[in-house]
From TrEMBL:
Biological processes annotated in GO: Mo-molybdopterin cofactor biosynthetic process
Documented EC number(s): 4.6.1.17
Protein name: cyclic pyranopterin monophosphate synthase
Biological role stated in the UniProt entry: Catalyzes the conversion of (8S)-3',8-cyclo-7,8-dihydroguanosine 5'-triphosphate to cyclic pyranopterin monophosphate (cPMP).
Ranges of residues in domain Molybdopterin cofactor biosynthesis C (MoaC): 17-152
InterPro entries named in the record: MoaC, MoaC_bact/euk, MoaC_sf, MoCo_biosynth_MoaA/MoaC, Mopterin_CF_biosynth-C_dom
Entry-linked Pfam families: MoaC
Length: 158
């Protein structure tokens, strides 16, 4: 059985960017999700205002922030490759005292877009928190995870 090893650590234990120069470009997608949960009374208040606060539309601002976050992933995560993205979709849906955030990212590259999808969800959630923190600090960001990835050596489905 082949033992897996960390791809961003070299034989000497130093951080390194993975060399993808010999890989073949292929269509790659990743879907990540997360939640941001509110106290019931805060979420009801937001819902009663159609999720528009003093800073504007909470959902639309978070969607734009999530898209920007995806585009900036290589600047935020030190060992990520800069890649040309072909599609970014951020969806934010209200549920029971929470928002469910989903980010789908697609490219035709030599490396995947998992980190970009996860960053999109994270930045969208942080933006919602920022826009709502005046109402409560008892807002919980959680369950940020990769749901699916396709392309490259291995596909993944949660």
């Amino acid at each position: 059985m082949m033992q897996k090893k960390l791809s961003h650590i070299d034989e000497s234990g130093n951080a390194t960017m993975v060399d993808v120069s010999q890989k073949i470009a292929s269509v790659r997608t990743a879907i990540a999700s997360g939640t941001i949960k509110f106290p019931s009374e805060v979420f009801k208040s937001l819902s009663d205002q159609d999720f528009v606060g003093k800073k504007g539309s909470i959902v639309q601002t978070a969607v734009i922030a999530g898209i920007q976050g995806v585009k900036k992933t290589a600047e935020l995560i030190p060992l990520c490759h800069q890649i040309n993205l072909s599609k970014i979709n951020v969806e934010i849906e209200p549920s029971l005292d929470a928002f469910q955030i989903t980010c789908t990212v697609k490219c035709n590259e030599k490396t995947g877009v998992e980190m970009e999808a996860l960053t999109g969800v994270s930045i969208a959630a942080l933006t919602i928190y920022d826009m709502c923190k005046a109402l409560s600090q008892d807002i919980v960001i959680g369950a940020i995870q990769l749901e699916q990835k396709t392309g490259g050596k291995n596909d993944f489905q949660r």
